[in-house]
Amino acid sequence: MLKIAFHPIYKHPLPAGHRFPMLKYELLPEQLLYEGTCTKANFFEPTIPDASHILKVHTEAYYNDLLNLTLSPKEIRRIGFPLSEVLVEREITIVGGTIIASELAIEHGVAMNIAGGTHHAYSDRGEGFCMLNDQAVAARYLQEKKLARKILIVDLDVHQGNGTAEIFQNDPSVFTFSMHGKSNYPFKKEVSDLDIALEDGCDDDTYLVILKDILPKLIQSENPDFIYYLSGVDVIASDKLGKLSLSIVGCKERDRFVLQSCKDYKIPVMCSMGGGYSPEIKTIIDAHANTFRLAQSIFF
């Protein structure tokens, strides 16, 4: 059965001006239930993880500043959200969802988190709407528990996974692959194990030819026993914060290829949703829902 992390705190409202990007976390599970892709049995409510797991990735000083709400104004501006106790609790809960979903992916082949993909969070700071790096923490958790040895992170959000790259720099046990917009945020890129920087306006054909050439070779050369997939839908042409030109059909084919590759190679995959900022919320929901629809059809 497809298992999906979702907690009511995911949809906690923010002050005016910040609510739109959060709305999808409320509407996406409703859409999946409405259309019959999922039932309530597919969803589980994550719990707060032990701090020791987070501290395997993030520095104690930074994590304590988050918990105590003592980040400097500059650090808060870099994150982009007004800091609050409930926002920090939400971020920690998302990390918990990704950890549990990772264990469930090993059991079922695939598992999802409605939220997550917070790849701009560094070991010692947050930025770009990201405070804690959920997939990085979960990857280290699997290794600490000896549930995975070699991990591949496939980051197909339109923005480079700069925080993830920094966290795992010089660590051969986690291979970081980021395929992103060349001229998009973050403007100062970190160095992933493999970065593919795409030109503005990159369309379906160009994108998919590159991905379909690279991913199988990467899986074969790195031989991972677990894959994290960051399936941001900010690659589509209508996205306000992206500069690529994929169609929703092209984005769906991207997801199909990644998920089918994981199934074919018999590698468990855990998916975090990442970004999506098109002007119409229905576009965001449909693009994200495709990832769940495909997971159901390919694995179950």
Automatic annotation (TrEMBL):
Occurrences of domain Histone deacetylase (ranges): 24-282
Any one Pfam family match given in the protein's UniProt record, by short name: Hist_deacetyl
Presence of the UniProt keyword Hydrolase in the record: yes
Keyword entries, A-Z: Hydrolase
SUPFAM superfamilies: Arginase/deacetylase (SSF52768)
Top-level taxon of origin: Bacteria
Hydrolase keyword on record: yes
Family as reported in the entry's similarity comment: Belongs to the histone deacetylase family.
Protein name (database record): Histone deacetylase
Organism of this sequence: Gelidibacter pelagius
